[in-house]
Automatic annotation (TrEMBL):
Domain DAGKc: 1-125
Superkingdom per UniProt: Bacteria
Descriptive protein name: Diacylglycerol kinase
Organism for this UniProt entry: Chitinophaga agri
Keywords carried by this UniProt record: Kinase, Transferase
Record GO terms (molecular function): kinase activity
InterPro entries: ATP-NAD_kinase_N (IPR017438), Diacylglycerol_kinase_cat_dom (IPR001206), NAD/diacylglycerol_kinase_sf (IPR016064), YegS/DAGK_C (IPR045540)
């Protein structure tokens, strides 16, 4: 097999250096070319590569895939293999890519292909895409708050800090008017959160969409009404103080076409903060099975 490794050199520790990763991959009989995901790697892609490896966190995965979706990385679509090195690793966990690096690499020669939808958003100055979620309310406020803090290096401590900040956000964020249509049906109302999700997890590893189908051509819209504020706050408090990772049962509506607007400016696309124009409607649709990932059998 022949692969091209796109690596975020700032992710992980010394065991995740270029030389160590190349050594581990080569040990499994995979011929591999290296590029830093932080540099202009598009011109270095080899057309005879069997697949592309992305080593980094969710942000790196998104940045690499956007290069393919926008055509900047050429016309060929390669199957993608992930080596998760971030904090939450929501994308890889949704694909059940977890465990030791050597075990993940060893699974590639006998892999299974998982097809993966991509969300598409109209209403910005250019067409936008998402892999994880597009949403409004408490999670973009959390993201903005975290940018103001000095985050710990340890991933578990970083997730704990994010949960503590989220708990405070939930208690104080004012519910906003959301105008929402899903496949022509009106779900408008006052919400603390509206997330158009493509995978099961969001933010600091919270599974809010356990029934997500990764290549089924549908999105899941997860809503948190003001009436759920106390129970969701209690759930987050329990996550902070307990080692158990129970899922929180929120209403989930499946759909293929979404029109949404939000009362304030707090919005995000995956891990990118954006400002939503007051009253501006966004049209969300799905690119069915746009990507292919190598996943363990």
């Amino acid at each position: 097999m022949k692969a091209h490794l796109l690596h975020n050199p700032k992710a992980g520790d010394k065991d995740h250096s270029e030389s160590e990763l190349m050594k581990k991959i080569s040990a499994h009989g995979i011929k591999c070319m290296y590029s830093s995901a932080k540099k202009n790697w598009c011109k270095d892609l080899q057309p005879d590569a069997d697949f592309v490896i992305i080593a980094g966190g969710d942000g790196t995965v998104r940045k690499v895939i956007l290069e393919f979706l926008t055509g900047r990385a050429g016309d060929k679509r390669y199957p993608l293999a992930l080596l998760p090195m971030g904090t939450a690793n929501n994308i890889s966990r949704s694909l059940h890519i977890t465990g030791e690096e050597d075990d993940i690499i060893a699974s590639w020669p006998k892999h299974h292909i998982q097809q993966f939808d991509v969300g598409k958003i109209a209403g910005f100055h250019e067409q936008m895409f998402f892999l994880e979620s597009f949403g409004f309310g408490i999670f973009p406020v959390l993201m903005a708050s975290m940018k103001q803090l000095e985050e710990p290096d340890d991933p578990e401590e970083k997730i704990k800090l994010a949960l503590e900040v989220l708990h405070d956000v939930i208690d104080h964020y004012q519910a906003q008017e959301c105008k929402l249509q899903i496949d022509g049906v009106d779900y408008s109302g006052q919400y603390l959160m509206a997330e158009v999700m493509n995978i099961r997890s969001i933010g600091p590893g919270l599974n809010l969409n356990g029934d997500a189908g990764l290549g089924d051509g549908e999105m899941e819209i997860v809503l948190l009404g003001a009436d759920k504020r106390k129970s969701f706050s209690a759930y987050i408090k329990d996550r902070i103080t307990s080692s158990s990772h129970k899922d929180y049962d929120l209403p989930v509506i499946r759909g293929k076409n979404v029109r949404i607007s939000w009362g304030d400016e707090h919005a995000h696309i995956d891990d990118e903060l954006i400002k939503s124009a007051d009253g501006k409607s966004y049209i969300v649709s799905i690119l069915k099975r746009e990507l292919e990932f190598l996943v363990p059998r």
